[in-house]
Amino acid sequence: MSESFVSGPSVGSAAPDLVVPGLERRVSHAEPRVLAFVRDGKLTEPVTELPTIRAELRGLGAELVVVSPGGVWSVRADDPLEPLAAASAELAAEVSDAAQRYGVTHDEDAVFVIDGRGVVRFNHRLERRGRALWATLTDALTIAGRAAHMREGHDARQRVLFTRREWTVTCLVVGCATAFLSACKEQEHRPADRRSPPAEPAPPDVEVMLRINGTVHRLTIDPRTSLLDALRERLGMTGTKKGCDGGQCGACTVLIDGKRVVSCLTLAAMVGDRDITTIEGLARDGALHPVQRAFVEHDGLQCGYCTPGQIMSAVALIREGHATSDDEVREQMSGNLCRCGAYPNIIAAIQAARRTRG
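The structure assignment produced for this chain is given below.
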C-alpha cells in the first residue's frame, strides 16, 4: 500500500461539503469521521476484518463512512455495518461530484480523516493490488492512526477525539467544580458573627443521696442522669438491666417505696429521699427471696436478661394483692416483655410464690 497522498484538500484545511444521500443528518452533526471513497461497491461480502476496524475507529474516536457508486455504508466502533444508501443513478452522480471536490479520480480509492470541526487531519490513496476492499481499508485506518500520532504527537489524535459534545460536558463539570470550591472557600472565610451560636453549656453537677437496699450512697452527678445509669455506671449495680432505654420493656424495673418504677425514665436527682430496692436487695443472709426461688423452681426464664425486671414486678404485684388469677397476672405483668416467650412459666412461678406467701 502506498503512503502517497491524494490531491484535493490538504491536511489542516477545511473538508469540502459532502451532500450524498444518507449522509445529510450525520454530516450536519459535524462528528469526527473517516471518509473513504471507493470505486466499486463490493461491500456486502463477509467482513472478517470488522473487529480490527472497530478497534482502530475506537482509537480515532470517529465513524467510518464508505462512499461508492454502489452504495453508502457506515461503521461505528460499537455498531454493526449499516447501509445508508442503495445504488442508484442519483447516488452515482452525487458520489462522482463529491469525489472530484475531494480530488479523487474515478480509478482511485482514498481515505480522509476529518475532525469534529470539519478539518482534514489525514488523507491517503489506497492501492489494493488484488486485495479485498475491507482488508485495504483496515490497513488505511492503521496508517491513519499512526500518522495522527507521529506527525503532531498526541495533539492531532486528541483533536479528532474531542467533539463538541465532550467539550460541553467538560465545561459543565469544570463549572460545577469551580462553583463548589468557591462555596467551600466562602464558608471558610465567613465572618465569625455569622456562624451558628455555640451550644448551651451543660448544667452544673448536683449532689444526691440515694438510699438503695438500705445503704446510703452519695454521688455528684449530672442532673440529667437517670436512676438506671446511676445504678449501673456509678454504683456498679448491674443486676438492673438496660433494655429499650425508653420505658417499654420493663427490664430496668426497680421498687421505689415498694412501688414498681422503670428506672430508665426516672431521674436519680428526684428520688434522693426515698427507699430504692433493686434485684440485689431481695435476698437476705444468702437466702433467695421466695419469688426468686419460685422462678428457679418453675424455670421462669430462658436467656435471663429480662428476669430481674420480671422478678421486681412480681414482688410488687404480690404485695399489692393483684395475683389472684392467671389473667390478672398477665394484665399486671404486661409491662414486662420476655423476648424468649417464657410467659407460661413466669405466671406459674408468680402463682407459686403467692401461695407460699399465703
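Interim note for the steering committee: DSSP finds eleven helices and eleven strands in the chain. The chain has three domains: 24-166, 202-281, 285-358.
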